[in-house]
Design goal:
- The chain is mainly alpha-helical.
- The protein has seven helices and no strands.
- α5 runs antiparallel to α6.
- The longest helix has 19 residues.
- The chain starts with a helix and ends in a 12-residue tail after the last helix.
- The mean pLDDT is 94.
Length: 141
């Protein structure tokens, strides 16, 4: 209930494309997702993705994350084809924007390989898993 109020107020005061409004929409979408309220979650994740594409561009890490969140909503509903299509673009953008060694890029790759496996697309799952880094470089402190 509080997330709904925050989103409504931010839309009214800040406008729909303000970064804080977009964050509030993403928070509410995540809450709906965790509650299994798929249609509400999907609607907001689509909105967040569209706004982030417009405001930040398609290769911004936050836009990529928004697409990943929407893909997860498709997957949670067993909508594997839609999940795979969106995650393939997430992986491609993540590799370009973040690099293959980035933990988020690696997570996107694992997610896509999992989805391909659920679709019975073994060759694509194997090719995708080949992008995983078995020994990531040590983090500098």
């Amino acid at each position: 209930k509080l997330f709904v109020e925050v989103l409504e107020q931010r839309r009214r005061v800040l406008g729909i494309e303000h970064p804080h409004t977009i964050i509030a929409a993403g928070n509410l979408a995540s809450t709906y997702h965790s509650q299994g309220r798929w249609s509400e979650s999907e609607k907001l994740f689509v909105e967040v993705l569209e706004q982030r594409r417009r405001v930040l561009g398609i290769e911004h890490p936050h836009t990529i994350e928004a697409a990943s969140n929407l893909a997860a909503t498709y997957g949670a509903q067993g909508r594997w084809e839609e999940d795979a299509v969106l995650l393939a673009s997430v992986v491609q953008a993540g590799l370009k924007a973040l690099g293959q060694h980035h933990p988020h890029a690696q997570a996107y790759i694992r997610d896509l390989a999992f989805v391909y496996g659920n679709l019975g697309r073994k060759k694509e799952a194997q090719e995708t898993r080949a992008l995983l880094i078995s020994n990531p470089p040590a983090q500098s402190t």
